[in-house]
């Protein structure tokens, strides 16, 4: 019923999740793992290669540093994907995606939908994240996190991961959410509880890929479930602050720093005031980045 696909770089994590899947999935499945420790291929290329040889109709692209806490979770995935109006299923995401570059978390937190145990990098303490304000079995969202993404093979065949644009390990979830979302609903299930042992990496590579993706999808953003193409000003402000913070961590983005700092001053002054002023001046005139 389900082909689980994992791009692996850690044998210990892979061994643990392999056993966990066997103990919890509850439906016939195959596991395709690709050892990417030494080759360093982009995750889009790996996922496309594995999906092409999958024998089942339902595909689950999964990180290896996770554990399922829900028994029979495979039945939940199969039931959701048997609905032809649903194209993509995850365990965390947001109902709004700003037109400004950023990840799914860069919006007002009221837009989050999730059901996870998330380990925090500083403490390694797991935080229960249960965000389901309408008490739904599943929530339609604008995009999902890449930790767990389930779809039909027919959807993947029409909306393959963009391994031409994305050569690294970032942005594939945002890109696939918007692409698969043209084939049907993107949803977060609240019936599956997943524990995730790491958080996202907002590196220079992530920033470059994010900027590329927003140029690709600018015609389709903002994306929102409630009323398409209607912006949420506060979420856009949150996205602008987050983006400027990321830009200031890396050299070579002078024009972008000026652009988004001006945006905060002119469009979001009532929220931002003169925040970032000293940091931006140091970046522009003394080439100082922030940590």
UniProtKB/TrEMBL annotation:
Gene Ontology molecular function terms on file: transferase activity
Keywords in alphabetical order: Transferase
Pfam families documented for this protein: Glyco_tranf_2_5
Record-annotated Streptomycin biosynthesis protein StrF domain positions: 4-189
UniProt keyword Transferase, yes or no: yes
Segments forming a coiled coil: none
Lineage top rank: taxon: Bacteria
Protein name per the record: Glycosyl transferase family 2
């Amino acid at each position: 019923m389900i082909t689980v696909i994992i791009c692996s770089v850690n044998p210990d994590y892979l061994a643990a999740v392999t056993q966990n899947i066997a103990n919890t999935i509850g439906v016939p499945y195959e596991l395709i793992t690709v050892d990417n420790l030494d080759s360093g291929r982009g995750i889009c290329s790996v996922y496309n290669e594995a999906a092409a040889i999958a024998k089942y109709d339902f595909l689950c692209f999964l990180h290896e540093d996770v554990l399922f806490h829900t028994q029979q979770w495979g039945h939940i995935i199969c039931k959701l994907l048997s609905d032809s109006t649903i194209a993509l299923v995850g365990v965390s995401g947001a109902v709004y995606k700003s037109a400004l570059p950023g990840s799914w978390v860069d919006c007002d937190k009221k837009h989050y939908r999730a059901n996870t145990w998330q380990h925090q990098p500083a403490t390694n303490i797991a935080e229960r994240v249960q965000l389901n304000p309408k008490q739904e079995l599943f929530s339609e969202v604008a995009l999902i996190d890449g930790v767990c993404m389930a779809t039909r093979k027919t959807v993947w065949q029409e909306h393959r991961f963009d391994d031409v644009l994305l050569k690294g390990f970032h942005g594939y979830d945002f890109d696939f959410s918007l692409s698969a979302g043209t084939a049907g609903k993107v949803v977060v299930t609240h019936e599956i509880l997943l524990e995730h042992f790491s958080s996202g990496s907002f590196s220079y590579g992530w920033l470059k890929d994010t900027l590329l993706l927003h140029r690709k999808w600018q015609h389709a953003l903002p994306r929102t479930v409630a009323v398409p193409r209607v912006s949420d000003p506060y979420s856009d402000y949150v996205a602008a602050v987050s983006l400027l913070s990321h830009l200031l961590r890396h050299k070579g983005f002078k024009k972008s720093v000026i652009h988004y700092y001006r945006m905060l001053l002119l469009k979001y002054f009532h929220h931002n005031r003169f925040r970032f002023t000293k940091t931006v001046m140091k970046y522009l005139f003394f080439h100082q980045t922030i940590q």
